[in-house]
Recover the amino acids of this structure.
């Protein structure tokens, strides 16, 4: 098959990426997915004579990525990939929305981030799925929510209390993040801050993904000490959010002890991140070429002590949580997504691993400090709320081990190197395992070595559909619990 083979963070000249006829790319892409490949990116880029479509497929077992492209000039239609490869469904909708090229035969060709009345004059009302029948009714939630929750509309089609269909409509914010990366390509500090803000609860994950992409294009060698500090920060972020999720899940089933205890443990972790860089979410820690803040021997001892205490306290709190009959009654067999469905729709992260899908970028496509230590892929088979909760506990324990190992290897060394010039007319794929799952950045440069295109993919892009499927045949009162068991990002989706 005529696709170029690369690794995570390997920059390549655009001229080396095969340009296939669209039907050839379509057939080969479907074949790769049927053979176990995973669709990582699928996006368009404007060219002088039309639109170029890029596709990236991962072979996770071999730690390889395959890239190919196709061009559209006069033609504005192609045969949809989705009927034979469901994981392409949202990618194709996004491509159609941005460039007007129609995937003919797509089963659900609706807007992804537009067609919201009142946002722009040329947008038309979104048409929701509807059901008819005696005692069938609809329940609409949002887009405006209580507190600081971002906008998103949830349309439930119900019979009595049972949910038959949930349609989720996002895209209300129109932030233009990808365009901002290009417009401000000459301002490194701005780019770092922008990457931190793609999804505010994943500062280290998103900033790290973008920064590593730029470093690869610049052929910049990041000091080992900086890589280890970045990895410690990423695992602290993972631990903190997983603890917060266990707290929220406990609160949703009225287990108030767990709600309080896990919340307090989260505070202990984010305060440790603040001790490193002055911000509880890690803002300002990462920079192009390395890190802005060091971990001194005294701080290293403080982190190690916190981790030791946390390990014991989390284990005790989790033992009580997962042995509580009232908690198990609500968690078990609720919101099930089986392994076949999870793999077919392209789920990623802890939610996918809770359904038995064995993927983890840290293991499959190592980056940063994970180049030096093995990470075992941890999975469960249940695919329910219990599995999505318990996998968080297991991953907290794993993150603690990783932090301990990174701290023990934190020997003296530089914290940063100067960034070189970016390669001209090149492309790089940067994959990161954030706490939600796979974060994907593709950065393309032009003939002057400046950023021409940035394609961002938050793990929520894959997993919102899984939430819709999880609540089918469930009582509508279980939706908040299912929702928190995924804890997806609105802003990470609304680019």
């Amino acid at each position: 098959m005529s696709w170029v083979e690369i690794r995570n963070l390997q920059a390549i000249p655009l001229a080396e990426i095969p340009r296939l006829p669209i039907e050839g790319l379509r057939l080969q892409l479907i074949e790769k997915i049927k053979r176990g490949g995973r669709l990582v990116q699928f996006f368009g880029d404007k060219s002088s004579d039309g639109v170029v479509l890029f596709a990236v497929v991962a072979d996770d077992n071999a730690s390889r990525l395959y890239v190919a492209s196709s061009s559209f000039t006069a033609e504005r239609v192609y045969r949809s990939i989705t009927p034979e490869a469901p994981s392409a469904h949202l990618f194709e909708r996004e491509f159609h929305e941005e460039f007007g090229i129609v995937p003919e035969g797509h089963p659900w060709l609706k807007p992804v981030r537009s067609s919201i009345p009142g946002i722009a004059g040329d947008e038309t009302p979104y048409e929701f799925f509807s059901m008819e029948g005696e005692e069938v009714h609809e329940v609409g939630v949002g887009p405006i929510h209580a507190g600081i929750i971002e906008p998103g509309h949830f349309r439930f089609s119900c019979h009595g209390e049972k949910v038959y269909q949930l349609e989720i409509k996002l895209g209300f914010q129109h932030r233009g993040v990808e365009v901002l990366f290009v417009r401000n390509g000459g301002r490194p500090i701005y780019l770092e801050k922008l990457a931190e803000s793609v999804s505010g609860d994943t500062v280290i994950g998103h900033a790290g993904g973008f920064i590593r992409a730029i470093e690869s294009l610049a052929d910049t060698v990041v000091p080992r000490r900086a890589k280890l500090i970045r990895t410690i920060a990423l695992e602290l972020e993972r631990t903190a959010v997983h603890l917060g999720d266990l707290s929220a899940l406990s609160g949703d089933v009225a287990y108030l002890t767990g709600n309080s205890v896990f919340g307090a443990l989260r505070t202990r972790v984010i305060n440790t991140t603040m001790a490193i860089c002055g911000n509880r979410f890690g803002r300002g820690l990462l920079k192009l070429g390395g890190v802005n803040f060091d971990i001194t021997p005294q701080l290293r001892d403080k982190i190690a002590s916190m981790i030791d205490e946390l390990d014991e306290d989390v284990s005790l709190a989790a033992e009580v949580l997962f042995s509580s009959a009232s908690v198990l009654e609500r968690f078990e067999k609720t919101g099930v997504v089986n392994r076949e469905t999870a793999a077919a729709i392209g789920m990623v992260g802890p939610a996918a691993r809770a359904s038995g899908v064995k993927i983890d970028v840290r293991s499959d496509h190592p980056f940063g400090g994970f180049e030096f230590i093995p990470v075992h892929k941890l999975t469960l088979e249940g695919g329910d709320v219990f599995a999505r909760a318990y996998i968080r506990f297991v991953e907290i324990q794993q993150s603690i081990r990783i932090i301990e190992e990174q701290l023990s290897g934190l020997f003296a060394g530089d914290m940063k190197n100067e960034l070189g010039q970016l390669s001209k007319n090149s492309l790089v794929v940067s994959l990161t395992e954030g706490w939600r799952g796979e974060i994907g950045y593709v950065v393309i440069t032009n003939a002057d070595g400046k950023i021409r295109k940035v394609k961002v993919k938050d793990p929520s892009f894959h997993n919102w559909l899984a939430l819709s499927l999880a609540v089918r045949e469930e009582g509508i009162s279980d939706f908040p619990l299912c929702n928190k068991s995924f804890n997806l990002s609105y802003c990470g989706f609304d680019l």
The chain has two domains: 4-104, 177-464. DSSP finds 15 helices and 15 strands in the chain.
